[in-house]
Amino acid sequence: MALQSNIPEGPLAEKWEKHKNNIRLVNPANKRLIDIIVVGTGLAGASAAASFAEMGYNVKAFCFQDSPRRAHSIAAQGGINAAKNYQNDGDSVYRLFYDTIKGGDYRSREANVYRLAEVSANIIDQCVAQGVPFARDYGGLLDNRSFGGVLVSRTFYAKGQTGQQLLLGAYSALSRQISKGKVQMYNRHEMLDVVIVDGKCRGIIARNLVTGEVERHGAHAVVLGSGGYGNVFFLSTNAMGSNVSAAWKAHRKGAYFANPCYTQIHPTCIPVSGDYQSKLTLMSESLRNDGRIWVPKKKEDVEAIRNGSKRPVDLSEDERDYYLERRYPSFGNLVPRDVASRAAKERCDEGFGVNKTGEAVFLDFSSAIMRYGKTEANIQGVKNPSEDQVRQLGEDVVRAKYGNLFQMYEKITDDNPYKTPMKIYPAVHYTMGGLWVDYNLMTSVPGLYAAGEANFSDHGANRLGASALMQGLADGYFVIPYTIGEYLADDIRTGAISTDTPEFAQAEKEVKDKINAFINNNGDTPVDDFHRKLGRIMWDNCGMARNEQGLKNAISEIQKLREEFYQKVRVPGSAEELNPELEKALRVADFLELGELMCRDALERNESCGGHFREEYQTEEGEARRDDENYTYVAAWEFTGTPSEAQLHKEDLVFENVELKQRSYK
Amino acid sequence: MNLTLKIWRQSGPNDKGRMETYQVSDISPDMSFLEMIDVLNDQLVREGKDPVAFDHDCREGICGMCSMYINGEAHGPGRGVTTCQLHMRSFKDGETIYIEPWRAAAFPVIKDLVTDRSAFDRIIQAGGYVSVNTSGNTQDANALPIPKENADKAFDAATCIGCGACVATCKNSSAMLFTSAKVSQLALLPQGEAERERRVLRMVNQMDLEGFGNCTNTGACEVECPKGISLENIARMNREFLKASISSES
Amino acid sequence: MSRSAILKSSLVKKYWMALTGLFLCLFLVGHLVGNLQLFIPGMEGQLQFNEYAKFMTSNPAVKILSYVTYFSILFHAFDGIKLTFENRKARPVKYAYNKPGENSGWASRNMALLGTVLLAFIATHMTNFWAKMHFTEMPMQTVDAEGAMLMEPLKDLHTVVMAFFNPSVNNMALVAMLFYVISMIAIAFHLWHGFQSAWQTLGVNHKKYTPLIKLIGKGFSVLVPLLFAVIPIYLYITQA
Question: What is the ipTM of this complex?
Fold first, then answer.
């Protein structure tokens, strides 16, 4: 099947408007006859479900958590981008579009990204109307901050809890529709398969996690807003429950999986402290507004810090290597995430890592504290303040900006980041790859849609900070509610989808067989063991840096691990109860297949771009070297039985409005 | 560290349940509390026993899923932390730790330490929203300036993670802090003005229907709330409800 | 909906608790002013106290206030009991291990217990004096401090009170004195939480004023019961 991206004709700036005007409409009376299933209640899922219901469709929404409010969008910290130009710093839709394309290392679709930038301003308006309490200045107007990879201030925020506030906004819109009966909410339900009838997606199989019952749900269309797959690495900033299963089941049923190797390693996370670790905690990118990243210049100072004979504050300015400021003078500490992560890895690989494991660098706020302190002393009219006074005042300013992040850091590490620099290291954070979708966000399976992190569409090979929230809400509030009409217009006479069909029966049987196989398996090893091993393989070979040999090894190791998993895994308890081990086993089974596909994709892409860094393809200065000649395409994989036999389809990326350039932040 | 754990085990909603004792050893003080439970569960699975079911997801203190009553306190001894942010360095080697689920008629136990908190969702569904449809035509976000003080207070109230520690810790299992946080957030913002009376009346009514107890102003909720939601919000809701009850015509 | 809400809602029950509670605080002040007259020595004191007692039982305005007081006491107690039972029902399974002292004050958690003690006290106290004054034959005061005949004899509540705490007249005087003192401690704790809690319930919580309300509440809850308690101690000691 050839990939039809269905990008509308016409000039870039007019595509979306024109497309909206040409989309077929479903009249309100007919919308009542149409059911839509939404899987996942994060920013994309909740906003889509609420918007569908507002329009008049009947919605069934599913989440595996105990409440839709707990989806992992809630953990996003820093902010959301929008081209509002409230700061009068020359921002515009075009500039946001351009920054996103460039930030994504020219591996995303122009038309999608432009649409994203276009609707970004509406998102802020919508959220404010819902009562989302964004940060404001004393004049009562919205405040902005700056994020990596851009030279303007366009990020709206609510302290370090922007994702929470936006998700609660979407959750409240969803709650309103639930109370009206337009959305039927299924908490503690996990989607375990999609059902295809006559080539169209007509429903899902879901397991009630409390009773264990396997249920059939029919609908005219299914929207997956099930998030990303970062947990394939076991250790990531994702929630424990975040998983690829919904997307992977869709992939197995015919939806192409695009660019799986594009994973984002976030530069500022709290380093791993031991083998028992279950997850990694992010320290928001917004901290790089004020924090300076460094390691010691001399190896002996590194040693001294590691063994505790010197403290970081003992090192004078010229004994420190502010390596981002040194290498990238124009963007400094605010280079994009992929660049900052690789730079940290480079220093640590050279032996400059500042903690016991050698995998940490400093994020230092002392300059910012003193700078803010001086300003504050002036504001308060303190004459000739002492250094301690200045520091105190400065700490108060920093506390007001990042208090909750600093507190989070202190709780985890037992270090006080006001007094000593934070230690940070890159960790898996976001996945740019995902289900392949066309301009309407429909996957290669008719009637099956993907929104938010679950799709691949907007971030290319690297996502800019504060753009994930923007994309999730853009898809859910402003894109999919319109584009889905084009497909559903044909379904107004279909009538309710019966689940009493051989296709549903078959899908249900497959799910039940798989569950029973796990429950009855005669193994002795807990699920997490396999997940950890998979994570290690992925991190070592398909993490921040990849090479041909490593990827080949990883593929065969994953295949072996997968076999071992089915033989040795132990799932205690029964299928007819709340059984977290069973839930995990079902998810890890899918990660074990996805992991292999990611490595294959990484192996196939003989260039370095964004989050995908192949050691073979770098400049002499160690920067990523793209190959636009041969790899300006989206790699969309078709499942044909096993991940190793997945078939590659290429969607060429055509750039008509921006010129492909070597990305430089110097 | 070596620890003795006394954990509530209950196989399902109809089981009576009981405290059971477990031993764990070689616990690192840098582990989070839930990682310690992971160690226990790993041990139980290897022994062929049923692991302890507990709610958890983000493990960074924001999703509100984790919910353990540890040593007689919601989310354990720390202040301003959820269970997942509690670290084992807060305990002593050899200590006995009691772990129980949230206790409230409105939060029935599903299994072990897992409870059903959907009552909170229903309270929000009763009115914890602004009735605005999605459209590209809402007014510009800066059209209505909001005094910073109000925006900040609304934000502070909105940081509630809906974990239910307030209910668990209140001797009356009252949900006033949770309900008032949402009522306050929207009462402080101009966007919430139109539905102000209807909202507070409906949300309080739903809160009562769910079987939560009455607030007796002990202030325990504020102390144990991992997000430090202030009692001011409860007073504000009391005020809002009083005004709405008097002025509403229905 | 609000018609039923005004009767049924959890918040409305709390408003009633707060309003009746605050009214009873006012009542306490009035009562205390009367009682302090027991410190006035001699016949002068006796006359003033008895005149005051008469005024309190006969003045129509005071009568209305006293009915409000009876209602407040009964309603406050009834409402409190109802709330307590509802609150118990809200947690059918108790914690095996609980440390409520980590997050709340003792008084705030034991308002029902303290209230029960107070109810018992009020019943006893009213039997001791109020019922006698209203329903039984009382000794009469017929002359004033100068020995002049009164126009109208007064019920001599003063003598009854004095005798009640006089160990040489009443062999239970010590028990009575201790009971009164303990009850005043109970009321102190009850007020310690109740006074500021009532304001919170009525929605008064303000960064500037709440600390002041709390301070006044604490002062009130110590001073008023203390002065009440000093009287039986004084009467007991001075007559022993």
Answer: 0.97
